[in-house]
Amino acid sequence: MMKEIKCYIIDDNQDAIDILASYIEKTPGLELLGGQLNPLTALNYIERKLIIPDITFVDINMPEINGIELAELIEEYTNIIFYSSFTNYAISAFETTALDFLAKPLSYNRFLKSVEKIKKTQVDTDPNTSFFLKNLKGKAASTFQINFQEIIYIKALGNYIQIKTSAENLHTIYMTLKSANENLPKQDFCRISKSYIVNLKHIEIIKDKVVIMKDTSKLNLSDNFKREFTQQINAWSIG
Length: 239
What we know:
Blueprint: E1 5-10, H1 14-25, E2 30-36, H2 39-47, E3 55-58, H3 67-74, E4 79-84, H4 90-94, E5 100-103, H5 108-121, E6 130-135, E7 142-147, E8 151-157, E9 160-165, E10 170-174, H6 177-183, E11 189-191, E12 196-199, E13 203-207, E14 210-213, E15 218-220, H7 223-236
Parallel strand pairs: 1-2, 1-3, 3-4, 4-5
Antiparallel strand pairs: 6-7, 8-9, 8-12, 9-10, 11-12, 13-14, 14-15
Domain Response regulatory: 6-119
GO molecular function: DNA binding; phosphorelay response regulator activity
Domain HTH LytTR-type: 139-235
């Protein structure tokens, strides 16, 4: 089964981001990671792998760095589709490794044609989305498979960790929180304290220094981890 294509938008116009975001969100097979108004901030997120998009939609006429220059810096991390009202840049755009050039104003029909063309050329190169672990809870140890996306949070218990999943299960594993953090997809998980790693997709709301998960768990955000957590949340934001 083909994985969802993860999409990111870089454009200094919020309205343009909103239109493209709405197209992505209503199209099966696509996942919107976020959008960024500042191209240098987006460059930082992508180079640090806070955001790992399959396709990045890039405007061309932006302050500080134009889209073609930006594309040359991020093309090793992501595929590029230019999204601009300056059609005179189209020839220059295709001299890069860009997959397509979408002219503004963009119709949904034109967007779909580009997406369908890209889907036909995409190879599912997604890394492992699950792993096998040995559950030490109870008298007899058991080996089980867990999908990364099912994990709500991971709690440190000395040299052990406790994994809470969306199936309301708790798994106790012989592993340190540091080791778990190194083996999880950085884009989806973030450490918020010495005791907890959270799955960003399972966050319901953030209030001050409390992270409330979709299962209603309330986890404290430590000052030592607040900066990195905030950067990762901002990377997922639209605009």
